[in-house]
Amino acid sequence: MANGSETRRLGAEMREGERVTPLELFFDLVFVLAITQCTALMAHHPTWSGLVQGLLVLGMLWWAWVGYSWLTSVLNPEEGVVRLVMFGAMAAMLLVSLCVPEAFGELGLVFALAYGAVRVAHIGLFMLASPEDDQLRHSVLGLAFSSAIAVALLVAASHFDGMAQGALWALALFLEMAGAYVSNSSGWKLVPGHFAERHNLIIIIALGESIVAIGVGAAGALTLGVGAAAVLGVALAAAMWWTYFDVVAIVAARRLVEAEAGKVQNEMARDSYSYLHLLMVSGTVLVALGLKKTIGHFDEHLDLVPAFALLGGVAVYLVGHVAFRFRHVRTINRRRLGMAIVLLFLVPVATEVPAVVALAVVTALIWALIAYETRLYGEARVQLRRTQAA
């Protein structure tokens, strides 16, 4: 896209290169707090309704972050007025994060208004990026329309409770995500290598929440049981890292870069990263909740909801991988799908054994899957990773 005179006059620069900038990493720190707050919300209300509330909030926060990942594939976030607006968006996102524990309570209206400010900054910067690009501007205006309705629904939801409130939140999230699906995908701009790396980094941030949850669950105490559970928790987080970064992230990024620029590439990025990575992040946050409860009560039986969070979270994470692969190559990873099903069937069993035993079982199963796949991939995996490192 050519730099427009209006863009230059306002001091904004279009992105050049695929390197993730320090300001983008700085911006992501607020999302770290947001994920932590979602885990805290579910931990304080370890019920099915609390789980749904936490995932709805996570979905809204995720979509706000996704918007900025697309934005910084167009604009250089570190130059001109863009830098200042990014700081403002960070402040608004911080307020959103602070509201999370009471997003369905007393701070629902503040959450909605702060979230609206995050979206206004996002849409405004996108408009700045499209002074001479009618296709991009048309797509941005469509996104602005769906976002405005979503924010209005969140404002309305703050005046309700129970099922009505949850339904309004679900509708708001649906409209936010549907807006990108129905808009003209050929109008969006993308730097594929940068876009893939941004999502790789956010997976690391989500996995980091699992490590934080271990520390919070231990609550400053270190006994043999707590230590064993903590080590197992790190082993589980490491296994989840391996399943994504050993092969999947490399292959997916390469396919995105090699896809036909424009509509094909944009829709691949939207579907596989903006949509399907939400499954992976949601699964990781659920695992963090399960680890937090496990570390704190390692010798007790898990209740059904924390047990589902621990085993079901890994299952959701693996299903995200299966869907991710299917979107890229139209084949199903039956090993990971089968493992996800096995973990779901084991949820009732996890409520009948000490929490540390349930954690040991799920960790052993995932590492067994990794060992099998590593042997199965053989030399092809080694060559792929060597090529990536070159």
Walk me through what this model shows.
The structure is a single chain. This protein has 390 residues and is an all-alpha fold. It is 79% helix and 0% strand. The chain has 15 helices and no strands. The N terminus is likely disordered.
Percent strand equals under 5%
Quote the average pLDDT: 91
Low-pLDDT residue spans: 1-7
Helix content: over 70%
Radius of gyration: 21 Å
Described by the principal axes of the CA atoms, the overall outline is globular
User: What kind of sheet is the major sheet?
Assistant: none
Class derived from helix and strand content: mainly alpha
What is the N-to-C order of secondary-structure elements (H for helix, E for strand)? HHHHHHHHHHHHHHH
Number of strands: 0
Provide the number of structural domains.
2
DSSP helical segment count: 15
Distance between the termini: 30 Å
SSE order and pairing:
Layout: H1 5-9, H2 22-44, H3 48-71, H4 80-99, H5 108-128, H6 134-157, H7 162-182, H8 192-218, H9 224-245, H10 248-258, H11 263-296, H12 304-329, H13 334-350, H14 355-377, H15 379-389
Helix pairs in contact: 2-3, 2-4, 2-8, 2-11, 3-5, 3-7, 4-5, 5-6, 6-7, 8-9, 8-10, 8-11, 9-11, 9-14, 11-12, 12-13, 12-14, 13-14
Brief synopsis:
The protein is built from 15 helices and no strands.
Characteristic terms for this protein:
single chain, 390 residues, mainly alpha, 2 domains, 15 helices, 79% helix, globular, disordered N terminus
